Amino acid sequence: MIESSLKVGVIQQSATADRNSNNACTVTAIHKVAEAGARLILLQELFAHPYFCQVIENSYFDLAESIPGPTTEELGTLAKQLGIVIVAPIFEKRAVGIYHNTAVIIDANGTLAGKYRKMHIPDDPGYYEKYYFTPGDLGFKPVDTAVGRLGVLICWDQWYPEAARLMALAGADILLYPTAIGWHPDDNPQEQQRQRDAWITIQRAHAIANALPLISCNRTGFEADPSNDKAGIQFWGSSFICGPQGEILAQAPVTEPAILLADLALGRNEEIRKNWPFFRDRRIDAYADLARRYSD
Amino acid sequence: MIESSLKVGVIQQSATADRNSNNACTVTAIHKVAEAGARLILLQELFAHPYFCQVIENSYFDLAESIPGPTTEELGTLAKQLGIVIVAPIFEKRAVGIYHNTAVIIDANGTLAGKYRKMHIPDDPGYYEKYYFTPGDLGFKPVDTAVGRLGVLICWDQWYPEAARLMALAGADILLYPTAIGWHPDDNPQEQQRQRDAWITIQRAHAIANALPLISCNRTGFEADPSNDKAGIQFWGSSFICGPQGEILAQAPVTEPAILLADLALGRNEEIRKNWPFFRDRRIDAYADLARRYSD
Prior knowledge:
- The structure is a homodimer.
- Chain A is α/β, with parallel strands linked by helices.
- The first copy, chain A, has one domain (5-283): Nitrilase/N-carbamoyl-D-aminoacid amidohydrolase, CATH 3.60.110.
- Chain A is 25% helix and 27% strand.
- The first copy, chain A, has helices at residues 19-35, 70-82, 129-132, 161-169, 189-210, 267-275; strands at residues 5-12, 40-42, 85-95, 98-106, 112-117, 143-145, 148-152, 174-179, 182-183, 214-218, 220-223, 233-236, 240-242, 248-251, 258-265.
- In chain A, the strands form 3 sheets. A 6-stranded mixed beta sheet of chain A has the order 5-4-3-2-1-15. A 6-stranded mixed beta sheet of chain A has the order 6-7-8-10-13-14, covered by helices on one side.
- In chain A, strand 6 (143-145) and strand 7 (148-152) form a beta hairpin.
- The radius of gyration of chain A is 18 Å and the shape is globular.
- At the A-B interface, helix 4 and helix 5 of A face helix 4 and helix 5 of B.
């Protein structure tokens, strides 16, 4: 088959409390990535904001916006101007009292190709997402765009092989993971290393299990706890792009903002699946219990 | 909670055409591993034989044996004598015309604690397993032993996150993967490296996704194609033991037989699941399509 190459870009940033400044940085970076030839750009989770879920604070609901809304308008204009597909994670206000952690997928003609609402919602010290985000109700459905069918998942989703598999079974060509994950500054360096390695390893494994390229975008920088109750979060960056055998094609540093670029050889997905035909042999007759909480 | 430690051992070997010699090597190694203090030992897939599935050859069915049978008898005696649990993959003759790729789990008192019949059966050039092995019909059920509940899977199973997850949901304490995987000598070194990395990465990811330690045992050495039609298989060894964050605790070389030992801190499974509570948030309402072949 003819090998088709797609240049993709990732924008890893640190966020400030100034939304306009964050947006301006992102727009500047999108221009750079597009000028470098990328036709698909992934932004980090909740890219316009600090990771406000460090605390439970009612007023943060006012950060949410509608879809379509100001961000989809602005990025739609930019996508059309540059002829690129943009995956932009925003804080969605769906209705009074219903908010989601959502990624909008803006097509190269500027239209809204679709959206993904985060399905798995974490809730851990410093990551109080169940307070803010209603669990997604759109399921695991990839979105068709000018550059292919995109399987967009968000952060906590990345720990669930089920999510990646469902995107692949629905025909995704690429898996994308916008993320906001970091270290508790009090954890020791060995524990921090194990956590970061686990985060890279499990996403590479989703690429391998499904023979799909994968793009992961994490934020970087330290963000203090606004309540000063906790030590804050040191986001570990390390955004990366890997191929359908999990091979790393590009990776960003831990502590610095970065733009990543890589060429995806999309024809390889099919070659890999012919050589290692995992999909042929799934024991769907024996998988029913995956839809159970536990065996008891 | 009280942290309990379990020493486990892996025996990575190269196989010859002489079954008695293979068995004698294995028995010697089991003695060594037990003397080193291990209470659980994992052998490689089809440990008593060369990887005969390189060719389609009717006479190889005669290598199969019943359960219970000579291997379970011999290893049962040894397990009781040494007070260890042995996971031994054999070629099972279940009935005239029904053969399985099976792992027997022999308890520390010498009894047969249970068995696992390989569920996902590959069939690729040089790995003609669908000819020899009827797909397993016991499902993904861990087996209770003196050292815990063992989630034993075999080789091709390791590419399926579904299998590991089902073992975890059924209460497995440890995942175990006896394997026979290697390189086509004609593949270039970069491709070989990607394949081996993928194999390590996806298994580490099963440990991570399920917060379970994992033991993987592959064979090593070159085995020629008996028909001389193909270039044979260079089994890549690299057996390893990792913890519930996917952290490597011990790893064997590529080309040499080896005995691996590691101490598993079983209490860590629960600690990890409390810190990263993936199991709490599975979207079982949205997983039904995992039991479908594809979305169309």
